[in-house]
Amino acid sequence: MVAARRVCRIAMPAAYPARVSKVDKTHAMRVLDAAGVAYEATVYDAAGAFHAAEEAAALLGAPPERVYKTLVVLRDGQAPARPIMVMLRALDQLDLKALARALGDKKLRMATMREAERLTGMQAGGISALALRRPAFDICIDESARGAMRVHVSAGKRGVDIELAVDDLVRLTGARYVVAAAGAG
After folding, report:
1. How far is CA 185 from CA 10, 22, 28, 103, 131, in A?
2. 111-162 pLDDT, tens digit each
3. Which of 24, 80, 89, 185 could join 20 in a cystine, given CB atoms 3.0 to 4.6 angstroms apart?
4. Which CATH number fits domain 6-178: 3.40.1190.20, 3.90.960.10, 3.40.50.150, 1.10.520.20?
5. Distance separating alpha carbons of residues 77 and 74, to the nearest angstrom
6. 96-105 — which CB contacts under 8 Å span 24+ positions?
7. SS3 track for 88-105
8. pTM for this one?
9. How do residues 70-95 score in pLDDT, each as one tens digit?
10. In 10 A of CB 78, how many CB atoms?
């Protein structure tokens, strides 16, 4: 087995620590390490402020089409039902009707910030399918990811990003490819 490449890149003012220590590893990074997956972690905001996905892309210096946000969606009127975690490009808007068609559901709705945080155990702006401790979600990724070799996703903590191969992300999260972006279907 080839050792995984793990690089921690720091994109922050010099007043912050110069590297990410073991203590700073997120659950997502530990999952990747345990699986032997190559990834690159970047701290782009050590203060952990909330950033929209397009802001995170700018702070990372990454093209927004390679930065994926993670949204929490609920099956409306179907209790109890598994919540859905959807990953799509930073600039894309979620099409709930297209996602419902892809999943065979009648009606879906976006989770509120409070619901998303309660269900995932993570703060909005830092939600990651890789960092889930309870596999109680259906995980989806937009079809647009099929054309990418590597993508950026949250490391499960605000201000921390992971870049990894799409195939590794899909394999480790059990994600299903769906048409989820508005205008894509």
Report:
1. 38, 43, 31, 14, 29
2. 999 999 999 999 999 999 999 987 789 999 999 999 899 999 999 999 999 9
3. 24
4. 3.90.960.10
5. 9
6. 98/178, 98/179, 98/180, 98/181, 98/182, 98/184, 98/185, 99/73, 99/140, 99/178, 99/179, 99/180, 101/179, 101/185, 102/140, 102/178, 102/179, 102/180, 103/138, 103/140, 103/178, 105/75, 105/78
7. EECCCCECHHHHHHHHCC
8. 0.84
9. 999 999 876 678 999 999 999 999 99
10. 12
Please compute the mean of the pLDDT values over residues 154-181 and round it to a whole number. 95
Write down the domain spans for the chain: 6-178
- Strand 68-75 relative to strand 84-89: parallel, antiparallel, unpaired? antiparallel
Q: Which residues contact 97 (CB under 8 A, 6 or more apart)?
A: none
Amino acid found at 29: M
| H helix or E strand, kind and range, residue 5 | none
